[in-house]
């Protein structure tokens, strides 16, 4: 992965005290495209959060930290494993539901 010199989205929000709505929309669209690609390859990240979204000086964003990622064929994701960061976890996962 290329160098993402700005840092994480979490760093940016903390440093700037927030970000403008148009940039939020652009970031969200980019992250959703990335997730669509990941899911299209039958993978789940399992820990999407601002700390794992990296930005560069051109405004590009990349999803990072695939340490908890698994393939959808993997037995780990077919069981009721509980991994990720609780504050950013989908309610259905907290309730013990499957990955959507």
From TrEMBL:
Coiled coil regions, renumbered to chain: none
Tree of life domain: Eukaryota
Keyword terms, alphabetized: ATP-binding, Kinase, Nucleotide-binding, Transferase
One term of GO molecular function: MAP kinase kinase activity
Listed Pfam families: Pkinase
Signal peptide span: none
Keyword Oxidoreductase: no
Family that this chain belongs to: Belongs to the protein kinase superfamily. STE Ser/Thr protein kinase family. MAP kinase kinase subfamily.
Name of the protein in its database record: mitogen-activated protein kinase kinase
């Amino acid at each position: 992965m290329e160098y993402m010199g700005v840092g994480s989205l979490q760093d940016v929000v903390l440093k700037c005290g927030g970000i403008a709505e148009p940039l939020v929309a652009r970031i969200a669209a980019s992250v959703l495209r990335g997730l669509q690609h990941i899911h299209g390859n039958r993978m789940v990240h399992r820990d999407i959060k601002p700390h794992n979204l990296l930005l560069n000086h051109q405004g590009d964003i990349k999803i990072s930290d695939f340490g908890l990622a698994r393939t959808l064929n993997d037995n780990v994701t077919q069981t009721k494993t509980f991994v990720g960061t609780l504050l950013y976890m989908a309610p259905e996962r907290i309730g013990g539901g499957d990955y959507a």
